[in-house]
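Re-running the complex after MR caught last week's input typo. The corrected sequence lines follow. Everything else is unchanged.
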Amino acid sequence: MLKQIEGSHAMAEAIALCRPEVVCAYPITPQTHIVEGLGELVKNGSLVDCEYINVESEFAALSVAIGASAAGARAYTATASQGLLFMMEAVYNASGLGLPIVMTLGNRAIGAPINIWNDHSDAMSVRDSGWLQLFAETNQEAVDLHIQAFKIAEELSMPVMVCVDGFILTHAMERIDVPDQATVDAYLPPYDPVQVLDPAAPISIGAMVGPDAFTEVRFLAHYKQTQALGLIPEFAREFAEKFGREAGGLLRCYRTEDADVVVVAMGSVCGTIKDTIDEMRDDDIRIGLVTIVSFRPFPVDALRASLAAAKDVVVVEKSIAVGMGGQLADNVGSALRNLPRPPRLHSAVAGLGGRPITRASLHHLFRQAVVQPWEGTHFLDLNDRVVGREIHRKRKSRRSGPTAENILRQLAIASGLPAAE
Amino acid sequence: MFQVRIHGRGGQGVVTGAEMLSIAAFFEGRHAQAFPSFGSERTGAPVVAFCRIADQEIRLREPILDPDCLIVQDATLFKVIDVFAGLRGDGYLLVNTNKTFAELHIGEAANRLPKRHAVIVPATEFALKHVGRPVPNAALLGAFAALTQFVHIDSVKRAIEEAFPGKIGAANIAAATEAYAFVQTQQLAATAA
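Corrected-run output:
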């Protein structure tokens, strides 16, 4: 049914349609509206046979989900930013134990400095944890990916993280087609665990494993993710047949057929990039976009095929591995490595801590990549003046003070307004 | 695409205003995208919310930088921030106040817009009268319908009802209806003059 609805509430409705049996709820901006929405659905009787557990922390949220999943329940939780960090040990346990939990990540920056706005630092901090990570481009896709996520997770017996841009998607109200129960039921069968703690047939899960078997356990985790490279597109195709719209898959190409320049990005910024591409196409610039949906597993082969004919590849990502550069660019680089004539790779970091990514800046960036390419990592819309002054200050005086506060003071002076407390 | 930027202060229902406008457009079969710009989430702090309306899917996720219409819920903001930033030359301006544009020292900016594109409406007064609280958002949407004729007042009423079912909704609808009539009367008078 078409609704004008907030992204978080639409996701809550979609998750409820997947009939989770345990929902572990702990609030953290910008994810909170999702678990609140699920709480309302449990309370008003729309979501039945579901234990809604208010836990005391994020660590508890995922730990309870792990216990529930091991006991054979379809388990769900959601978090963001510092919340994800606080549950980190459990994140690795969920994947290490092979438990098919679905978790929404309302993507948000990680402090310090504390920042509640959107970027992909949180998702990147767990990119090697063994979870599958799917990125939603729109709120419609966020809804659809959750339904696919339960199916993928349970088929592989691996946890799946659905990454949704905080505020930009979670707090946007727009037209979303929320499917009906019968369609979801026809797509997603009841959870049939491959391993379950059952008093009638006792087993143990979570044995200590020494050097004699640890490599093999890890190999099999990696092997499962390579299997997911086939499963994700298969389940996306089945979704399209049953729901009548495309969503998910490994990646999507937009106007790439004859493109000299191909942009690679993830999440909601792809919408703004598509509008930019349409405008540049009107100026006869042959440019296209590859949207990565599945960041883990990383679709190396599919990406290589999509980028093989390009002359320039521009990666736009909302994260920075400090001291190294963009993680997505690094991963894209490994996909290009074995091409006989690889395109030039340009890495741009944008939208950190919620800075808007505008069409105007993207136009400039994409043109610059071709005519005046930069070395290393480019920070889109970096305030060079502020950065320069702070570097100068640090050179001048050893006790130069905290960087974040120094920069806020500079900005306040420049704006003529009093500094924030 | 028609882009509306709503300026107000925390507690005035700025975000809800943008959401109700998007629901009104949805009822008319259009695509609409309402979203907040979260600064400090404090009562009284300047708040901005956005609403895009289009006949096709809206993919753009940047903040609204070149609005077709500004709705200003709190006239004291003109002194604090550049409310007019990016307003299109053929745009609309709707200000919640019982003063004139000249008294607010924005006469020049209002005059630059096409005739009958800039109006004032005492939306807080209407809200106090009907709702009993100084929440001007619903009344301003009624005024918006009269000013731009971009959404029908009936869609605005339905949207208010969806956001606030029952008595509170009815009170807000009354405020919106009075604001609609207030602006329509002004526009008719301006046309006749």
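None of the earlier attempt is carried over here. The first helix of chain A runs from residue 7 to 17. The first strand of chain A starts at residue 2 and ends at 6.
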